[in-house]
Amino acid sequence: MTKQIKTAMLIDDEEFDQRQYLRVLQRSGLVETVLQYTYAEDALAHLETHPELEVDVIFLDINMPRMNGFEFLEAATEKLGADFVKTVVVMLTTSLNPDDRTRAESYDVVRDFINKPLTTEHVERVADLI
Amino acid sequence: MVESNYTHIWERVIARAAIVLATNFLKTICVAFALLYIFQRLVGRHLLRLTHFANAYDPKEQGQRLKLDKSEVLGATTVMDEFAVLEASINRWSHATETYLAQLKHTNLEQAEFSYSVSHDLKSPTNTMAMLIDELDDLGLTTEMGQSILDDMRATNKRMGDLVTDVLDYSRLVDGPLETELFDMMPMIEEIKMDLSADISAAGARIRLDDLPLIQGNPLQIRILLQNLIANAIKFRRPGQAAKIRITATQTEQNTVLSVADNGIGIPDKFRTRVFGLFKRLHARSEYDGTGLGLSICRRVMSNHGGHISISDGIEGGTTFNLHFPRVSHD
User: b/e map of A4-28 (b: 16 or more CB within 10 Å)?
Assistant: First the structure.
């Protein structure tokens, strides 16, 4: 049976967190390929140079150096159109600021807002969105 | 006989003229003094009082108020009304300034106390965590994943500890009045070079100093400031290139500008304000370590000294940090 999430993208500046997400995603058994980026601008560049790539879900951190989560959403929507990801962007963040949540919801492409840490339950929830 | 009459008349005319001039002169003097006296009583002494008040004003003190002597002068009260308004306005102004300044001082101190106690209380759990992780490690985990997770735990806990320490250092700088002295920075920089000697030799860094003027400052804070900048210059060097650091100074009548220039990776224009923000970083921790507080601390030290910090282009694409110190009368 093909997995529910074919391609997932993780954008988070903290290397330790990235390792942990990978463990969680693998343990869930719901994800086939995972692309990982420490800098949002690198993720954006990859999306730009691979227009044929279909990403099912992007797990996006908010607080990152240089280009943060919101700046990434702005830039991606501007350069690639509102459907730059096949299905869904999920904000995955430490942020407890309710303004961040409101701001995230203003983007149609953002379909969920998860407070870290990421658990397998979260992954199942996201898989159902697709 | 006619001639002697003319001489006599002439003498009498001169005498008359002298008396008229003298009396006119005296009259004018009297009127002048009278006018000056009236002016002094109506206006001059109030202006004098106002000048003394303004000159002695210290916004940090409380209860400074202007008091003008409102006794009537020759029955003239109209001019006094204007001065009464002035006096009331100045006192309102003084009261407002003192109130706001007191509030500001109070808020700052409160914030510093808060940061200090929060950081202090957070230090304890991180220490406990470090011990527990070591205990777990000693139990001997057999899986590779387990070991990897343990290493990540240790590193993350250390990161938290570093953050807490830096927040603690920052909060200590938001303090009361600054004690300054006139001192020489050269021996201080030599001490910093000794402290950083391991990093300096690892980076092959060369630090060049111009003759630096004495500055009026708080040595402890300036030490922290300079150490941060020099450590940064070494840390953010270009890979494969020896770090070059140059410290120079220029002086004008109003200020002393100290510049720390490097040939490192540089800071793009658009980030040159952002980098001074709290916890703001330009790189992921995997690329360059750090808590994002170093430059915030530098900014705070400059602000404490009544100056400011700015960024300009450095050596061969690097960065220069310019420290603007206002000059005090005796430096």
Answer: bbebbbbbbbbbbbbebbeebbeeb
Q: ipTM of this predicted complex? A: 0.82
The predicted pLDDT at position B61 comes to 81
pTM over the 0.90 mark: no
Q: Report cis status (omega within 30 of 0) of the bond before A117.
A: yes
Question: Which among B155, B271, B284 has CB closest to A13?
Answer: B284
Region of B247 (left: φ > 0; alpha: ψ -120 to 50; beta: rest) is beta
The domain spans of chain A are 5-129
**What pLDDT is attached to residue A128?**
87
List Cβ neighbours of A90 (8 Å cut-off, separation of 6 or more).
A57, A58, A59, A60, A110, A111, A112, A113, A114, A126
Q: Where are the domains of chain B?
A: 181-326
Q: Which CATH class is domain B181-326?
A: alpha beta
Q: What is the CATH code of the structural domain delimited by A5-129?
A: 3.40.50.2300
pLDDT of residue B76: 57
Q: What is the pLDDT of residues B9-60, one digit of tens each?
A: 899 999 999 999 999 999 999 999 999 998 888 888 888 988 999 898 887 7
Give residue B297's pLDDT. 95
Do the Cβ atoms of A38 and B156 come within 8 Å? Answer: no
Residues of B in contact with A16 (CB under 8 A): 152, 155-156
Cβ contacts of residue B44 below 8 Å, gap of 6+? none
